[in-house]
Amino acid sequence: EPDAQARAIMANAQQEEFKHFGMDLEFLLRRKPKWRTALQNILFKEGDIVEHGEEAEKEENEE
Predict the structure, then answer these.
(1) Is the distance from CB of 55 to CB of 41 less than 8 angstroms?
(2) CA 41 to CA 59: how far, in whole Å?
(3) Which of 19, 22, 30, 38 is most buried when burial is the number of CB atoms within 10 A of its CB?
(4) Distance between CA atoms of 59 and 19, rounded to whole angstroms?
(5) Is residue 3 predicted with pLDDT exceeding 80?
(6) What is the Cα Rg of the chain in Å?
(7) Contacts (Cβ under 8 Å, ≥6 apart) of 34
(8) Angle at which helices 33-40 and 4-31 pack, to 10 degrees?
(9) Is residue 17 a contact partner of residue 28, using CB atoms and an 8 Å limit?
């Protein structure tokens, strides 16, 4: 976007969406134990994201 004011408005809106996404995700994780378990095995971990996802899926299927 070439207009500086429009860019500032869009950047602010994007930050708000990040916050809303985080709040929505936390809400779901508090109420959906399977989601919480799966995402605890994927998020904020070093290494291959796909491998972590596959491991989380295996763990979920074992429950």
Answers:
(1) yes
(2) 9
(3) 38
(4) 29
(5) yes
(6) 17
(7) 60, 63
(8) 120
(9) no
Q: What angle do CA 39, 19, 22 make, to 5 degrees?
A: 15
CB 48 within 8 A of CB 54: no
Per-residue pLDDT of 23-63, as tens digits, reads: 999 999 999 998 898 899 899 999 999 999 998 888 877 76
Nearest-angstrom CA–CA distance, 40 and 52: 10
Closest to 42 (Cα-Cα) out of 22, 58, 21, 61:
58
The domain limits of the chain are 1-31, 32-63
